[in-house]
């Protein structure tokens, strides 16, 4: 069975291929379907972004598609940075982890250690060309340190 990952991220594709090694699944990516556009993540939730990417990719390729969205939620920041985790620092290019981490620490400078609860959230969505879909969530709870 072919499953198309809704990404052109080669590292992500290799990671999923390692995880599914030995299964009867052939992992493809958007690179294998150059006519399909990269899907814009413009939803307000991890689930919304993952579903949008999976559904649009399944529709474009005619094959089942797997997509994800993930990020950090900090209690003291009302759940921020959330779906904006990769571009949290306004002056940072998408995916600039050092700048994002610096901004996060600056935003929490007055928050004591005991109030720095956070969790990493990942939502995976599997969609079929007929529009049927499933979503799955994973969470890793922790806290934000006072310094790097």
Characterization of this structure:
The chain has 148 residues and is of the alpha/beta class. The protein has a single domain, classed as Alpha-Beta Complex (Maf protein). It has helices spanning 10-19, 46-61, 97-107, and strands at residues 2-5, 26-29, 65-74, 117-127, 133-143. A five-stranded mixed sheet has the order 2-1-3-4-5. Helix 1 links the parallel strand 1 and strand 2 (26-29). The longest helix has 16 residues, at 46-61. It is elongated and about 50 Å long. The mean pLDDT is 93.
Task: Provide keyphrases for this structure.
single chain, 148 residues, alpha/beta, Maf protein, five-stranded mixed sheet, 3 helices, 25% helix, elongated
| Structural class estimated from helices and strands | alpha/beta
The CATH architecture comes to Alpha-Beta Complex
Provide the helix percentage.
25-40%
Low-confidence stretches: none
What global shape is seen? elongated
**H/E element sequence:** EHEHEHEE
Name the quaternary structure: single chain
Q: Biggest sheet, strands in spatial order?
A: 2-1-3-4-5
CATH topology term:
Maf protein
Summarize the structure.
By secondary structure, the chain is of the alpha/beta class. The chain is built from 3 helices and 5 strands. Helix content is 25%, strand content 27%.
């Amino acid at each position: 069975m072919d499953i198309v990952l809704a990404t052109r991220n080669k590292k992500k594709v290799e990671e999923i291929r390692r995880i599914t090694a030995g299964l009867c699944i052939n992992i493809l990516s958007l690179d294998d379907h150059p006519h399909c556009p990269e899907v814009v993540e413009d939803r307000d939730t991890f689930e919304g972004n993952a579903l949008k990417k999976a559904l649009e990719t399944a529709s474009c390729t005619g094959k089942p598609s797997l997509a994800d969205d993930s990020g950090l939620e900090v209690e003291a920041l009302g759940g921020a940075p959330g779906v904006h985790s990769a571009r949290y620092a306004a002056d940072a290019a998408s995916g600039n982890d050092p700048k994002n981490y610096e901004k996060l620490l600056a935003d929490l400078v007055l928050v004591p250690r005991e109030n720095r609860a956070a969790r990493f959230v990942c939502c995976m969505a599997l969609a079929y060309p007929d529009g049927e879909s499933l979503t799955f969530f994973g969470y890793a709870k922790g806290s934000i340190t006072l310094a790097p």
